[in-house]
Amino acid sequence: MSESVKSVLVIGSGPIVIGQAAEFDYAGTQACRALREEGVKTILVNSNPATIMTDDDVADVVYVEPLVPDVIRRVIQRERPDGLLPTLGGQTGLNLAVQVAEMGILDRYGVKLLGTPLEAIKKAEDRALFKDLLQQIGEPVVESTIVHSVEEARAFAEKVPLPMVIRPAFTLGGTGGGVAHTLDELDRIVAGGLNASPIHQVLLERSLAGWKEIEYEVMRDASDTCITICNMENLDPMGVHTGDSIVVAPSQTLSDKEYQMLRTSALKIIRALGIEGGCNIQYALNPDSFEYAVIEVNPRVSRSSALASKATGYPIARIAAKIAIGKRLADLRNVVTGKTTAAFEPALDYVVVKIPRWPFDKFQRADRTIGTQMKATGEVMAIDRSFEGALQKAVRSLETTAKDLGWEDPNWDDARLEDLIRRPNDLRLWAVMAALRRNVQTDTIHEWSRIDRWFLDKMAGIVALERRLQSEPLAGELLWEAKRAGFSDAQIARLSGTTAESVRAMRDQLGMRPVYKMVDTCAGEFAAATPYFYSTYEEEDEATPLEGPRALVVGSGPIRIGQGIEFDYCSVQAARALQEAGVASIMVNSNPETVSTDFDASDRLYFEPLDVESVHEILRHEARRPANGMPPVIVQFGGQTAINLAEPLSERGVEILGSSQNSIDLAEDRERFEAFLRRLGIPQPHGAAVTSLADAEEVADQIGYPVLVRPSYVLGGRAMEVVYGPEQLARYIRNATTMTPEHPVLIDKYLLGKEVEVDAVCDGQEVLIPGVMEHIERAGVHSGDSFAVYPGINLFPAEIETLVNYTTRIALEIGARGLINIQYVIHAGRIYVLEVNPRSSRTVPFISKVTGVPLVKLATGIMLGKTLREQGYCGGLWPRQPLVAVKAPVFSMAKLSGVEVHLGPEMKSTGEVMGVDLAFEPAFYKALIASGLALPPRGSILISLADEDKADALEMIGQLVQMGFKLYATEGTAALIQRAGMPVQRVTKRIGRGKPDVLDVIRMGTVHGVINTPGPADKEILDGLEIRRAAVERGIPCITSIDTAKAMVAAMAKASDVYSVQPLSAYRRTGFGY
Question: What does pTM read for this prediction?
């Protein structure tokens, strides 16, 4: 270790957004642990409360603060680190490190940039410098140019024919980029790309659509030792962002000559850049020749690094962190094998398939075409001995309506299929399978899609097996072939006309069960000590069942809107709590981006789909020792994914730890829950469960509009809507749902009041409530999209008393064991229960961190039979901390064209940040900065308010005027402002009906923020939607809730310059009460 580096500042990646998900939290967490192993003090700055990375024990000092230069300066001033590690926080961390270096902050305080030098970062990230470097070392580049204006782009288009790829500099997930096929598209995408790039620079390059896209993950140390960790091949050809591509590792269709040619190039590039640590290099390869071009280099841990790390078992972030403080690859032990050094290149004797998880189930109107700008929120990974097996397992892991490759939309005709195959989109894989079933030749599909024939032949093989399962008797040999090709029991049953239970019984009779193979980085060449396994249908098993007490934790699967990294946090905490209690933890998950699937996050990791068959087979495998029996299962921490497994696993004789299946069902069954609350005398909004439009209309008429409608058994408010009249209700029932007696639609009276949320932990005797959270937005905005404030600063002591009383009684009576989350609304002085979930919620990490109460650890202890008192805690409300914390939502709307920005009961945010301080205003202001929603300190604001919000907004408008903002407003709002005697510039709301209209002032950059609240009748009106979309696409803060706008302006008026920056633990104290 370099003697001079005794403390290191690590910059995290901030909130989960499209293009930057949990892979950076996984990398940062691994790196912090690696540095601490070397005796280096780690100081972490990250704004995301939902991740394990910001737990007190991951780094020596943890700051949960906005990721802006001023905060980094103040942390450096206070902590005086020797070095800064910029390459683990994704594009956010990298850009921030470059900013503080260029501002002279690092030089002023003597802080070294560790690992990759600043010059190398700039050469890789700045498109012009990178192009020059490639030309100097003789590496092929795509015909391209750098532009700083739309006019320059037009001039290049006269020399190079369209289509053309637009890549903005210093952005993540291809933000602002795209492929232009027409001059109009070129103008629009270049303008957006220039706006998205922090240095206002865009690369235009000739489109290589149809070429193969190949990635190499490489590593280099300061002594110039370089290795290739993994090479990956995108199933989708060039033209699709790698984060939106199906990726296969190792590459399946390259000849040895092609593989070695690109490997040599990758090592040459990492050496030329002088990168110290991990680096990802992307290539385009002409399928008809050996011609290739270098597309991009990420001089940091990237989304693909996490995939490469999990695919090979090689801990990239851990090794990169050690290289950054001067270690050499040859000196570092590969902790997976325990025998080889880190300079040993991994070898794979299996196939890995990654499939993205897109949010189009949430956003029905979004453009489903995928291109160079990423749209996926998460991803799944599967491992098997064949491509077919890995592909089928990965599809089952996605948890969408397309449960396996057999799914087809009944409306697909031949023309629609061709379109879906020609145009990259989220359904293309299923369209290819449907075309093969209709006997479309693989050559034709290759022509339409440019997907390599090798992959298409493998998919045709799956279809051939489907046909045999439909036509031949289900004998042992056919069943064995189907299982080896990744078919689930349910698929086989559907195709052969039997039941999944019968297929399982037949397998048992034949002794046909999966074996579990090790991911060991060395293809079995050395005996490895890793606890990391995948299933396959072969003879030899490598996973000897664990001995002694053990429990299986069901993870939460891919990151998606409504079920994010918060549940992975809970799963990891549960595994740790089990280990501390002397119980071996077995983790099952399918997500390559997260901490839960790190090789050392649990005693044993199974990388498998989270379906009943896969989890049950693991349990049966672990029960092979006669004395063992099946391990009990924890489903409380994996979101709805895990909860959905409780009933089917119980039916198979599995012990579920924590709240019983009866408790879960009581909370989710409308009629039982109503009767339960009635018995307790606790109010609930009037409503009912309905299974027809006639019932729905009758209930809505009885309780009165507006009503809140939603499907039962739901997470993330999916398909939830506030309905204001019979026509809207009829449309909802027709479009949004499939009603059955098992899954009715719930209709409740919509109460416009203050929403309050409580997380609690119950041992059956006592209930501990760490704190009460108040939402800034009134009820009607999904809790995941609301600003949540701890403590409830606007709640009366009597209200808090009632909330504690209701929570305690509900938790005890429902039979909760472990965590429970309850949402309330305070309306006209009464407190009503909106929803009860006897499981972990997305606010558990937030409330745990701000109160210091280890909720997941306590809940796990309860599941193992300990009371709260035996764990050192007692029931009631935990003493109030002398701080205010605000959880703010973060959205990725700019990535999804056509999506409505306005907030409602259906969740839309992809991540969250936290602002914490000693008072509300600075805490809220910090949350706004961290989430990118803060208005600039001066400038112009466009205001367009719904009629019902106008009177409520006058004080806020007055504050904006006093702060020196120039106001623009639509007709009705401008009249209100003028009557109040304040200056305003009127703009017309009707687009194209006068100059300037609302879109003009947004698109021309006249205004720097938008406050636009749609009224009930305005939800579907195009003008309002266009205002909000235009603001998002220009990167301008757009606030759609009057409550948020008022709180924001009040906070800015009081706190814009004065906020604290200190470690999270320094804000907390013990012994404070309400």
Answer: 0.91
